[in-house]
Amino acid sequence: MKSQNYNNHVRMVPAFHFFLVPLGIITLIASIIHLFVAEMHGISLFSSLLFVSVSLMAVITMIFARRFACKVQDRAIRAEENLHCFALTGKLLDPRLNTNQILALRFAPDEEWMALCDKAVKENLTPESIKRSIKAWKADDERV
Description:
Shape: elongated
Mean pLDDT: 94
Strand content: under 5%
Keywords: Membrane, Transmembrane, Transmembrane helix
Order of helices and strands: HHHHH
Transmembrane segments: 12-37, 43-65
Pfam families: DUF6526
InterPro entries: DUF6526
Largest sheet: none
């Protein structure tokens, strides 16, 4: 496996991002088109509306399933980094750090971590700035 760095750290799951998501969107669009065609031809709208509802439910479920999994993982990473901070300094994370900053800090090795935490708080760095500031990238291969 390629070593992880800023340029390749975003995780794409081909079956999800390039198959399931487009298929869900295409199905939803097709169901809406089917509804309009049925309306124009005076056909009963029951099956068309059912098709739209099921397609919409599938797309919304797919979005929420992904979002919920990421949110839980974000909470776990926040807890890990809080423990990491406590192990390094004997203190918990600075409460001024937001979750996105903490998620970015997880890629910093111990040698750079504390200085980046301080800089992130003092300069209110964006997650992108934090990631770009890391010199020796620490991979997170477990990210969903």
